[in-house]
Write a structure and sequence with these properties.
12 helices; alpha+beta; 4 domains; Beta-Lactamase; 18 strands
Length: about 500
Protein backbone atom coordinates (compact mmCIF):
# COMPACT_ATOMS: atom_id res chain seq x y z
CA UNK A 1 0.00 0.00 0.00
CA UNK A 2 1.35 3.40 -0.98
CA UNK A 3 2.13 6.06 1.64
CA UNK A 4 0.68 9.56 1.70
CA UNK A 5 3.87 11.04 0.25
CA UNK A 6 3.94 8.48 -2.57
CA UNK A 7 0.28 9.04 -3.47
CA UNK A 8 0.56 12.82 -3.40
CA UNK A 9 3.73 12.86 -5.48
CA UNK A 10 2.22 10.40 -7.95
CA UNK A 11 -1.16 12.08 -8.44
CA UNK A 12 -1.14 15.62 -7.19
CA UNK A 13 0.58 18.79 -8.45
CA UNK A 14 1.15 19.68 -4.82
CA UNK A 15 4.09 21.59 -3.39
CA UNK A 16 6.34 20.53 -0.53
CA UNK A 17 4.43 22.99 1.69
CA UNK A 18 1.17 21.23 0.81
CA UNK A 19 2.67 17.85 1.63
CA UNK A 20 4.01 19.13 4.95
CA UNK A 21 0.54 20.41 5.83
CA UNK A 22 -1.10 17.10 4.89
CA UNK A 23 1.29 15.24 7.20
CA UNK A 24 0.53 17.72 10.00
CA UNK A 25 -3.20 17.29 9.43
CA UNK A 26 -3.04 13.50 9.37
CA UNK A 27 -1.14 13.50 12.65
CA UNK A 28 -4.19 15.07 14.32
CA UNK A 29 -7.23 14.16 12.29
CA UNK A 30 -7.94 10.98 14.27
CA UNK A 31 -9.25 13.35 16.93
CA UNK A 32 -11.73 14.81 14.43
CA UNK A 33 -12.86 11.34 13.27
CA UNK A 34 -13.51 10.27 16.87
CA UNK A 35 -15.47 13.43 17.70
CA UNK A 36 -17.64 13.18 14.60
CA UNK A 37 -18.11 9.39 14.86
CA UNK A 38 -17.26 9.38 11.18
CA UNK A 39 -14.76 8.14 8.59
CA UNK A 40 -12.53 10.85 7.09
CA UNK A 41 -11.02 10.66 3.61
CA UNK A 42 -8.42 13.06 2.20
CA UNK A 43 -8.82 13.82 -1.53
CA UNK A 44 -6.04 15.49 -3.54
CA UNK A 45 -6.44 16.80 -7.10
CA UNK A 46 -4.27 15.52 -9.94
CA UNK A 47 -3.11 17.54 -12.97
CA UNK A 48 -6.12 16.34 -14.97
CA UNK A 49 -8.49 17.87 -12.43
CA UNK A 50 -9.53 14.51 -11.00
CA UNK A 51 -9.40 13.57 -7.33
CA UNK A 52 -7.63 10.64 -5.67
CA UNK A 53 -8.01 9.39 -2.08
CA UNK A 54 -4.65 10.00 -0.37
CA UNK A 55 -5.46 8.95 3.22
CA UNK A 56 -8.26 7.50 5.35
CA UNK A 57 -9.06 7.65 9.07
CA UNK A 58 -11.53 5.35 10.85
CA UNK A 59 -13.27 6.46 14.05
CA UNK A 60 -12.51 4.57 17.25
CA UNK A 61 -15.79 5.84 18.71
CA UNK A 62 -18.08 4.24 16.11
CA UNK A 63 -18.25 1.52 13.48
CA UNK A 64 -16.38 2.30 10.27
CA UNK A 65 -18.04 2.71 6.90
CA UNK A 66 -15.04 1.51 4.93
CA UNK A 67 -13.87 -1.93 5.97
CA UNK A 68 -11.09 -1.68 3.37
CA UNK A 69 -8.77 1.29 2.96
CA UNK A 70 -9.70 3.32 -0.12
CA UNK A 71 -6.39 5.18 -0.39
CA UNK A 72 -5.31 5.44 -4.03
CA UNK A 73 -8.88 5.07 -5.36
CA UNK A 74 -11.01 7.55 -7.28
CA UNK A 75 -14.26 8.86 -5.73
CA UNK A 76 -17.69 7.58 -6.70
CA UNK A 77 -19.53 9.79 -9.20
CA UNK A 78 -21.86 11.24 -6.56
CA UNK A 79 -18.95 11.95 -4.25
CA UNK A 80 -16.86 13.55 -7.00
CA UNK A 81 -19.52 16.18 -7.67
CA UNK A 82 -19.63 17.12 -4.00
CA UNK A 83 -15.82 17.12 -3.67
CA UNK A 84 -15.45 19.31 -6.76
CA UNK A 85 -18.06 21.77 -5.46
CA UNK A 86 -16.20 22.14 -2.16
CA UNK A 87 -12.84 22.50 -3.90
CA UNK A 88 -14.09 25.04 -6.44
CA UNK A 89 -16.25 27.16 -4.13
CA UNK A 90 -13.91 27.00 -1.16
CA UNK A 91 -16.79 26.30 1.22
CA UNK A 92 -18.21 23.16 2.78
CA UNK A 93 -20.79 21.18 0.82
CA UNK A 94 -23.31 18.64 2.08
CA UNK A 95 -24.95 15.91 0.07
CA UNK A 96 -28.72 16.37 -0.03
CA UNK A 97 -30.25 13.29 1.48
CA UNK A 98 -28.40 10.16 2.65
CA UNK A 99 -25.90 8.28 0.53
CA UNK A 100 -25.83 4.50 0.39
CA UNK A 101 -22.52 2.62 0.63
CA UNK A 102 -22.56 -1.18 0.67
CA UNK A 103 -26.06 -1.17 2.16
CA UNK A 104 -25.23 1.43 4.84
CA UNK A 105 -27.02 4.78 4.92
CA UNK A 106 -24.39 7.51 5.08
CA UNK A 107 -24.54 11.29 5.53
CA UNK A 108 -21.78 12.85 3.43
CA UNK A 109 -20.08 16.25 3.73
CA UNK A 110 -17.07 17.70 1.92
CA UNK A 111 -14.81 20.29 3.59
CA UNK A 112 -12.08 22.26 1.73
CA UNK A 113 -8.59 22.29 3.20
CA UNK A 114 -6.56 25.49 3.36
CA UNK A 115 -3.16 26.06 4.92
CA UNK A 116 -0.96 28.93 6.10
CA UNK A 117 1.36 30.29 3.40
CA UNK A 118 4.34 29.49 5.66
CA UNK A 119 5.16 28.52 9.23
CA UNK A 120 5.99 32.15 10.05
CA UNK A 121 2.94 33.71 8.39
CA UNK A 122 -0.69 34.07 9.44
CA UNK A 123 -1.75 34.46 5.81
CA UNK A 124 -3.89 31.62 4.47
CA UNK A 125 -3.88 30.28 0.92
CA UNK A 126 -6.84 31.82 -0.95
CA UNK A 127 -7.76 28.58 -2.69
CA UNK A 128 -8.15 25.10 -1.15
CA UNK A 129 -5.28 22.63 -1.59
CA UNK A 130 -7.38 19.49 -1.04
CA UNK A 131 -10.73 18.27 0.30
CA UNK A 132 -11.67 16.06 3.23
CA UNK A 133 -14.95 14.13 3.17
CA UNK A 134 -16.87 13.16 6.30
CA UNK A 135 -18.87 9.91 6.14
CA UNK A 136 -21.39 9.47 8.98
CA UNK A 137 -23.35 6.28 9.48
CA UNK A 138 -27.02 7.31 9.88
CA UNK A 139 -28.57 3.86 9.65
CA UNK A 140 -28.93 3.80 13.45
CA UNK A 141 -31.83 6.04 14.34
CA UNK A 142 -31.00 6.61 18.03
CA UNK A 143 -31.53 9.93 19.75
CA UNK A 144 -28.05 11.42 20.27
CA UNK A 145 -26.85 11.70 23.86
CA UNK A 146 -25.46 14.83 25.50
CA UNK A 147 -21.96 13.41 25.06
CA UNK A 148 -22.50 12.76 21.35
CA UNK A 149 -23.91 16.25 20.80
CA UNK A 150 -20.91 17.88 22.46
CA UNK A 151 -18.45 15.63 20.65
CA UNK A 152 -19.99 16.52 17.30
CA UNK A 153 -20.05 20.23 18.12
CA UNK A 154 -16.32 20.05 18.88
CA UNK A 155 -15.67 18.05 15.71
CA UNK A 156 -17.59 20.57 13.61
CA UNK A 157 -15.57 23.38 15.16
CA UNK A 158 -12.35 21.63 14.11
CA UNK A 159 -13.72 21.08 10.58
CA UNK A 160 -14.37 24.82 10.33
CA UNK A 161 -10.79 25.47 11.39
CA UNK A 162 -9.52 22.97 8.79
CA UNK A 163 -11.47 24.91 6.17
CA UNK A 164 -9.97 28.25 7.18
CA UNK A 165 -6.44 26.89 7.66
CA UNK A 166 -6.18 27.36 11.44
CA UNK A 167 -6.14 23.65 12.32
CA UNK A 168 -3.84 21.98 12.94
CA UNK A 169 -1.53 24.56 14.52
CA UNK A 170 2.16 24.63 13.65
CA UNK A 171 2.92 24.89 17.37
CA UNK A 172 1.21 21.57 18.06
CA UNK A 173 3.55 19.08 19.76
CA UNK A 174 5.33 16.83 17.28
CA UNK A 175 7.60 13.83 17.58
CA UNK A 176 6.96 10.94 19.96
CA UNK A 177 3.53 11.14 21.56
CA UNK A 178 3.79 8.40 24.13
CA UNK A 179 0.74 8.73 26.32
CA UNK A 180 -0.92 11.40 24.12
CA UNK A 181 -4.57 11.91 25.16
CA UNK A 182 -7.33 10.56 22.93
CA UNK A 183 -10.96 11.65 22.63
CA UNK A 184 -12.42 8.59 24.38
CA UNK A 185 -9.96 8.95 27.27
CA UNK A 186 -11.60 12.19 28.38
CA UNK A 187 -12.77 15.47 26.83
CA UNK A 188 -13.46 18.88 28.38
CA UNK A 189 -14.86 21.88 26.52
CA UNK A 190 -13.93 25.37 27.73
CA UNK A 191 -15.24 28.83 26.91
CA UNK A 192 -12.98 31.77 26.12
CA UNK A 193 -12.40 32.46 29.84
CA UNK A 194 -11.40 28.86 30.62
CA UNK A 195 -14.70 27.91 32.27
CA UNK A 196 -15.87 24.33 31.74
CA UNK A 197 -18.92 24.03 29.45
CA UNK A 198 -18.88 20.23 29.22
CA UNK A 199 -16.88 17.36 30.72
CA UNK A 200 -17.19 13.77 29.53
CA UNK A 201 -17.66 11.08 32.20
CA UNK A 202 -14.11 9.78 31.67
CA UNK A 203 -12.66 13.28 32.02
CA UNK A 204 -14.67 13.96 35.19
CA UNK A 205 -13.54 10.66 36.71
CA UNK A 206 -9.89 11.39 35.86
CA UNK A 207 -9.95 14.84 37.49
CA UNK A 208 -11.81 13.47 40.52
CA UNK A 209 -9.03 10.88 40.97
CA UNK A 210 -6.54 13.72 40.61
CA UNK A 211 -8.14 15.42 43.61
CA UNK A 212 -10.65 17.83 42.08
CA UNK A 213 -13.87 17.37 44.03
CA UNK A 214 -17.39 17.71 42.67
CA UNK A 215 -18.52 18.66 39.20
CA UNK A 216 -16.39 20.56 36.70
CA UNK A 217 -19.12 22.24 34.63
CA UNK A 218 -19.46 25.91 35.48
CA UNK A 219 -16.04 26.08 37.18
CA UNK A 220 -12.72 27.41 35.98
CA UNK A 221 -10.56 24.44 35.07
CA UNK A 222 -7.41 26.41 35.85
CA UNK A 223 -8.60 27.34 39.35
CA UNK A 224 -9.77 23.79 40.06
CA UNK A 225 -6.40 22.34 39.07
CA UNK A 226 -4.41 25.05 40.87
CA UNK A 227 -6.22 24.47 44.16
CA UNK A 228 -5.50 20.74 43.86
CA UNK A 229 -1.82 21.17 43.03
CA UNK A 230 -1.03 24.12 45.30
CA UNK A 231 0.91 21.91 47.68
CA UNK A 232 2.92 20.22 44.93
CA UNK A 233 6.53 21.24 44.51
CA UNK A 234 6.98 20.40 40.83
CA UNK A 235 4.58 21.82 38.22
CA UNK A 236 4.91 21.81 34.43
CA UNK A 237 5.74 25.34 33.25
CA UNK A 238 3.25 25.14 30.36
CA UNK A 239 0.41 23.93 32.59
CA UNK A 240 -1.35 27.29 32.98
CA UNK A 241 -1.54 27.80 29.20
CA UNK A 242 -2.85 24.28 28.67
CA UNK A 243 -5.62 24.22 31.31
CA UNK A 244 -6.87 27.63 30.15
CA UNK A 245 -6.88 26.48 26.53
CA UNK A 246 -4.64 29.29 25.33
CA UNK A 247 -1.91 27.19 23.67
CA UNK A 248 -2.04 23.91 21.70
CA UNK A 249 0.40 22.09 23.97
CA UNK A 250 0.53 19.08 26.30
CA UNK A 251 1.39 18.96 29.96
CA UNK A 252 1.32 16.48 32.84
CA UNK A 253 -0.64 16.88 36.07
CA UNK A 254 1.02 14.95 38.90
CA UNK A 255 -0.62 14.04 42.17
CA UNK A 256 0.34 11.50 44.79
CA UNK A 257 -1.34 8.56 43.09
CA UNK A 258 -2.09 9.77 39.56
CA UNK A 259 -0.41 11.31 36.53
CA UNK A 260 -2.79 12.95 34.09
CA UNK A 261 -1.66 13.98 30.61
CA UNK A 262 -3.67 16.94 29.27
CA UNK A 263 -3.65 18.50 25.83
CA UNK A 264 -5.38 21.72 24.77
CA UNK A 265 -6.75 22.54 21.32
CA UNK A 266 -7.72 26.24 21.09
CA UNK A 267 -10.86 26.90 19.03
CA UNK A 268 -10.61 29.91 16.73
CA UNK A 269 -13.00 31.68 14.38
CA UNK A 270 -11.80 34.48 12.11
CA UNK A 271 -8.50 34.47 13.96
CA UNK A 272 -10.10 34.99 17.37
CA UNK A 273 -10.07 32.37 20.10
CA UNK A 274 -13.55 31.62 21.42
CA UNK A 275 -12.91 28.50 23.46
CA UNK A 276 -10.88 25.32 23.66
CA UNK A 277 -10.99 21.56 23.80
CA UNK A 278 -8.95 19.84 26.51
CA UNK A 279 -8.19 16.13 26.15
CA UNK A 280 -6.95 14.15 29.13
CA UNK A 281 -5.61 10.66 29.76
CA UNK A 282 -4.50 8.73 32.81
CA UNK A 283 -0.84 7.91 32.08
CA UNK A 284 0.16 6.82 35.58
CA UNK A 285 1.24 3.34 34.51
CA UNK A 286 3.06 4.65 31.42
CA UNK A 287 5.06 7.15 33.46
CA UNK A 288 5.87 4.48 36.06
CA UNK A 289 7.24 2.22 33.31
CA UNK A 290 9.26 5.11 31.87
CA UNK A 291 10.78 5.83 35.28
CA UNK A 292 11.66 2.16 35.67
CA UNK A 293 13.37 2.12 32.27
CA UNK A 294 15.32 5.27 33.10
CA UNK A 295 16.38 3.81 36.43
CA UNK A 296 17.42 0.51 34.83
CA UNK A 297 19.34 2.32 32.11
CA UNK A 298 21.19 4.46 34.65
CA UNK A 299 21.93 1.37 36.74
CA UNK A 300 23.34 -0.55 33.77
CA UNK A 301 25.55 2.37 32.77
CA UNK A 302 26.78 2.72 36.35
CA UNK A 303 27.63 -1.01 36.40
CA UNK A 304 29.63 -0.67 33.18
CA UNK A 305 31.42 2.35 34.66
CA UNK A 306 32.34 0.48 37.81
CA UNK A 307 33.46 -2.61 35.90
CA UNK A 308 35.64 -0.38 33.72
CA UNK A 309 37.17 1.25 36.82
CA UNK A 310 37.82 -2.13 38.45
CA UNK A 311 39.42 -3.52 35.29
CA UNK A 312 41.61 -0.45 34.97
CA UNK A 313 42.67 -0.97 38.59
CA UNK A 314 43.56 -4.59 37.80
CA UNK A 315 45.51 -3.46 34.72
CA UNK A 316 47.39 -0.91 36.82
CA UNK A 317 48.27 -3.56 39.42
CA UNK A 318 49.54 -5.85 36.67
CA UNK A 319 51.63 -3.02 35.24
CA UNK A 320 53.13 -2.27 38.68
CA UNK A 321 53.86 -5.93 39.25
CA UNK A 322 55.57 -6.28 35.87
CA UNK A 323 57.85 -3.36 36.69
CA UNK A 324 58.89 -5.01 39.99
CA UNK A 325 59.49 -8.40 38.34
CA UNK A 326 63.05 -9.24 37.32
CA UNK A 327 62.16 -12.25 35.20
CA UNK A 328 61.80 -11.22 31.54
CA UNK A 329 59.35 -14.03 30.88
CA UNK A 330 57.17 -13.09 33.85
CA UNK A 331 57.34 -9.42 32.90
CA UNK A 332 56.13 -10.17 29.36
CA UNK A 333 53.29 -12.38 30.64
CA UNK A 334 52.10 -9.67 33.05
CA UNK A 335 52.19 -7.03 30.30
CA UNK A 336 50.17 -9.26 28.00
CA UNK A 337 47.59 -9.83 30.74
CA UNK A 338 47.49 -6.07 31.36
CA UNK A 339 46.72 -5.35 27.69
CA UNK A 340 43.96 -7.97 27.58
CA UNK A 341 42.30 -6.52 30.66
CA UNK A 342 42.65 -3.00 29.24
CA UNK A 343 40.97 -4.07 25.99
CA UNK A 344 37.95 -5.35 27.92
CA UNK A 345 37.89 -2.13 29.98
CA UNK A 346 37.71 -0.08 26.76
CA UNK A 347 34.44 -1.77 25.78
CA UNK A 348 32.88 -1.22 29.22
CA UNK A 349 34.01 2.41 29.13
CA UNK A 350 32.17 2.90 25.83
CA UNK A 351 29.05 1.16 27.17
CA UNK A 352 29.02 3.37 30.26
CA UNK A 353 28.62 6.51 28.14
CA UNK A 354 25.91 5.31 25.75
CA UNK A 355 22.16 4.88 26.05
CA UNK A 356 22.01 1.39 24.56
CA UNK A 357 24.00 -1.80 24.63
CA UNK A 358 25.49 -1.31 21.18
CA UNK A 359 29.09 -0.14 20.85
CA UNK A 360 30.64 2.11 18.23
CA UNK A 361 33.51 -0.27 17.63
CA UNK A 362 35.47 2.20 15.50
CA UNK A 363 36.01 4.31 18.62
CA UNK A 364 37.00 1.23 20.63
CA UNK A 365 39.45 0.05 17.98
CA UNK A 366 41.13 3.46 17.79
CA UNK A 367 41.96 3.08 21.48
CA UNK A 368 43.06 -0.54 20.92
CA UNK A 369 45.60 0.76 18.42
CA UNK A 370 46.93 3.10 21.09
CA UNK A 371 47.72 0.03 23.21
CA UNK A 372 49.61 -1.39 20.22
CA UNK A 373 51.59 1.83 19.95
CA UNK A 374 52.63 1.44 23.59
CA UNK A 375 53.89 -2.07 22.78
CA UNK A 376 55.86 -0.77 19.81
CA UNK A 377 57.56 1.94 21.84
CA UNK A 378 58.56 -0.56 24.54
CA UNK A 379 60.17 -2.82 21.89
CA UNK A 380 62.01 -0.04 20.13
CA UNK A 381 59.80 -0.42 17.06
CA UNK A 382 58.35 2.31 14.88
CA UNK A 383 54.93 1.28 13.60
CA UNK A 384 52.49 3.11 11.35
CA UNK A 385 48.86 2.04 11.63
CA UNK A 386 46.53 2.19 8.62
CA UNK A 387 42.78 1.58 9.07
CA UNK A 388 40.39 1.20 6.14
CA UNK A 389 36.64 0.73 6.31
CA UNK A 390 34.24 0.93 9.27
CA UNK A 391 33.32 -1.62 11.89
CA UNK A 392 30.11 0.23 12.75
CA UNK A 393 27.89 -0.46 15.76
CA UNK A 394 28.32 -3.87 17.35
CA UNK A 395 26.49 -5.57 20.20
CA UNK A 396 28.41 -5.70 23.45
CA UNK A 397 28.54 -9.49 23.40
CA UNK A 398 30.44 -9.24 20.09
CA UNK A 399 32.51 -6.15 20.89
CA UNK A 400 34.21 -7.48 24.03
CA UNK A 401 35.72 -10.72 22.64
CA UNK A 402 36.51 -9.02 19.32
CA UNK A 403 38.41 -6.21 21.07
CA UNK A 404 40.51 -8.72 23.03
CA UNK A 405 41.20 -10.83 19.93
CA UNK A 406 42.23 -7.85 17.78
CA UNK A 407 44.40 -6.52 20.57
CA UNK A 408 46.18 -9.86 20.66
CA UNK A 409 46.62 -10.04 16.86
CA UNK A 410 47.93 -6.49 16.50
CA UNK A 411 50.24 -6.94 19.49
CA UNK A 412 51.66 -10.13 17.94
CA UNK A 413 52.27 -8.26 14.68
CA UNK A 414 54.19 -5.56 16.53
CA UNK A 415 56.09 -7.82 18.93
CA UNK A 416 57.04 -10.61 16.55
CA UNK A 417 56.46 -9.60 12.95
CA UNK A 418 57.97 -6.13 13.31
CA UNK A 419 60.42 -6.83 16.14
CA UNK A 420 63.26 -4.29 16.19
CA UNK A 421 62.30 -2.83 12.81
CA UNK A 422 59.96 -0.22 11.38
CA UNK A 423 56.85 -1.23 9.50
CA UNK A 424 53.15 -0.86 8.79
CA UNK A 425 50.15 -2.62 10.30
CA UNK A 426 47.18 -2.40 7.94
CA UNK A 427 43.65 -3.14 9.17
CA UNK A 428 40.74 -3.40 6.74
CA UNK A 429 37.15 -3.77 7.93
CA UNK A 430 34.35 -4.66 5.53
CA UNK A 431 30.87 -4.49 7.05
CA UNK A 432 27.98 -6.23 5.34
CA UNK A 433 24.39 -6.82 6.42
CA UNK A 434 25.07 -10.10 8.25
CA UNK A 435 28.85 -10.40 8.02
CA UNK A 436 31.91 -8.57 9.28
CA UNK A 437 35.19 -9.23 7.47
CA UNK A 438 38.50 -8.06 8.99
CA UNK A 439 41.96 -8.31 7.48
CA UNK A 440 45.10 -7.48 9.50
CA UNK A 441 48.36 -7.45 7.59
CA UNK A 442 51.92 -6.31 8.26
CA UNK A 443 55.13 -6.07 6.27
CA UNK A 444 57.21 -7.88 8.89
CA UNK A 445 59.22 -11.08 8.65
CA UNK A 446 56.12 -13.29 8.29
CA UNK A 447 55.28 -16.68 9.80
CA UNK A 448 58.17 -18.88 10.87
CA UNK A 449 58.26 -21.83 8.44
CA UNK A 450 54.79 -20.73 7.34
CA UNK A 451 53.27 -22.12 10.53
CA UNK A 452 51.15 -20.39 13.14
CA UNK A 453 52.47 -20.42 16.70
CA UNK A 454 50.71 -22.44 19.39
CA UNK A 455 51.27 -20.08 22.28
CA UNK A 456 48.72 -18.74 24.77
CA UNK A 457 47.94 -15.70 22.60
CA UNK A 458 47.01 -17.86 19.58
CA UNK A 459 44.85 -20.09 21.77
CA UNK A 460 43.03 -17.05 23.16
CA UNK A 461 42.43 -15.69 19.65
CA UNK A 462 41.03 -19.00 18.35
CA UNK A 463 38.82 -19.45 21.41
CA UNK A 464 37.33 -15.95 21.08
CA UNK A 465 36.89 -15.87 17.29
CA UNK A 466 35.85 -19.45 16.62
CA UNK A 467 34.26 -20.28 19.97
CA UNK A 468 32.49 -17.18 21.29
CA UNK A 469 31.93 -15.33 17.99
CA UNK A 470 31.33 -18.47 15.86
CA UNK A 471 33.57 -16.99 13.16
CA UNK A 472 36.62 -18.15 11.25
CA UNK A 473 40.25 -17.06 11.27
CA UNK A 474 43.12 -17.80 8.89
CA UNK A 475 46.82 -16.94 9.05
CA UNK A 476 49.11 -16.99 6.02
CA UNK A 477 52.21 -15.32 4.58
CA UNK A 478 51.58 -13.64 1.21
CA UNK A 479 54.22 -13.83 -1.53
CA UNK A 480 55.12 -10.17 -1.06
CA UNK A 481 56.13 -10.92 2.56
CA UNK A 482 54.74 -10.23 5.99
CA UNK A 483 51.75 -11.84 7.67
CA UNK A 484 48.06 -11.62 6.89
CA UNK A 485 45.20 -12.59 9.20
CA UNK A 486 41.69 -12.89 7.76
CA UNK A 487 38.67 -12.96 10.10
CA UNK A 488 35.00 -13.51 9.20
CA UNK A 489 32.32 -13.03 11.86
CA UNK A 490 28.58 -13.57 11.40
CA UNK A 491 26.41 -10.73 12.77
Amino acid sequence: MSTLSELVKKHGPTTSQDLEWFHLLLADWQIVADMLFADLVLWVPNPAGEFVAAAHARPSSAATIFYRDISGEAPRKQWETLIRDAFTSGSSANLKGPDSFEGIQVRLAAVPIRRPVSTKSQEITPNPVAVVTVHNNVSEGREPSKLQINYRDCGQALLEMIADGSYPDFSNPTGPKRGAPRVNDGLIRLDVDGEVLFASPNALSAFNRLGVSGELVGRSLSESVTSTLKTKMRVDESLSLVVTGRAPWRADLDSKNLTLSVRAIPLRRNGERYGAIVLCRDVTELRRQERELITKDATIREIHHRVKNNLQTVASLLRIQSRRTESAEAKESLEQAMRRVSAIALVHDTLSTGLNQDVNFDEVFDRVMMLASEVASSHGTSVRNLIDGKFGMLKSEIATPLAVALTEIVTNAVEHGLAERSGVVHINAERKAKQLGITISDNGKGLVDGKVGQGLGTQIIRTLIEGELRGSIRWFSPTEGGTRVVIDIPL
